[in-house]
Amino acid sequence: MTIRVLVADDYGAIRAGLAMILNDADGIEVIGEAADGGAAIAQAKALNPDVVLMDLRMPGIDGITATRRIVEEGLAQVLVLTTFDLDEDVYNALRAGAAGYLLKSVDAPKLVDAVRVVATGEGVLSPKIARKLISTFASIAPPAPTPAVNLDELTEREREVFDCLGEGLSNAQIAGRLFIAETTVKTHVSKVLGKLGLRSRVQAAIVAQEPT
Asked: Which residues of 181-200 are buried (b: 16+ CB within 10 A; e: fewer)?
């Protein structure tokens, strides 16, 4: 199955270069481009990509906000690709639900591999970012428990989708397992998040893995 990618970056030359790299890779197709966060959200809704390759510093709606919106609505997996490795950017992007965070210094083969990994619902981080997170988490107190949720609010199908989120499955994988359309999966994900009061599918995955 071809991985459909939307590239969001405010520099046209960078978008063109990324599109060239990804289109040359087997099984990957760039289906659209966006020059700002607002366009990225609109294009994600219109084009139904598997992965959005997202820059952070863009005019108008920034990449963090766009990532949060795209993830909350279950539109696609988001892989951040940026020049910046500031702690605040990294943490905000991951809290917004990004499935991966790479720096633009990454070489082409690793970028292609990262897109493939994120498309499966898995996460990926550049080594430098991974070291930052390890250092941070080693020095902080244990996080507060995730909020309690009432799974009785979910229909049988929504519970199945919720369980799939707990396994880290992408929308395409959930659709294949449950024999439903990806657009239907996105609708169910949105309803699950709303009923359980969760902000993103990442948080839903964490809650789904906790003992009931």
From this structure: ebeebbbbbebbbebbebeb
